[in-house]
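Dear colleagues,

I hope this message finds you well. In preparation for our joint manuscript, I am sending the FBA_2 domain-containing protein (Caenorhabditis tropicalis) sequence together with its predicted structure, so that both groups work from identical material. I would be grateful if you could confirm receipt.
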Amino acid sequence: MDFSSENMNQFFRSWQEGKTNRRLERCELQLNSYSDVKNALKGCGGELMDPRTTRLKFRSSNGGHNIWIYGGIHFRGNDGRLAVVELTGTYFSRENDENCQTQIKLYLEEMEKWDYSDDRLSFHKNLNVFFF
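The corresponding structure tokens are as follows:
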């Protein structure tokens, strides 16, 4: 199933407003085409975070292994929970992983597009969203 940026915006806003998916911890969306993440996050207050200075440890409640997420786009739900859209389709099993250069390179490229005057911000076809 192909998700449009409008479908994703409806999903994110519904979560943000606390209407649905309250217990959701993580979702992976595999997109058939590149989509516009800024339109998907329109009205959600998403902030592009620098992977050189921002990293979070995600612990699954089902006993899975820890995942380190560098950077991403962060936005909060009305209940204060944090959602992190991981942009590259890559995450790591240990902190300070030297292989996070992919995230840093993508961040530096996409940072220029994050200015609200540019409506296009593309992301990897495998979109991982983590909810804290």
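For the figure legend, we might mention the following. The radius of gyration is 14 Å. The mean pLDDT is 79.

With kind regards,
E.M.
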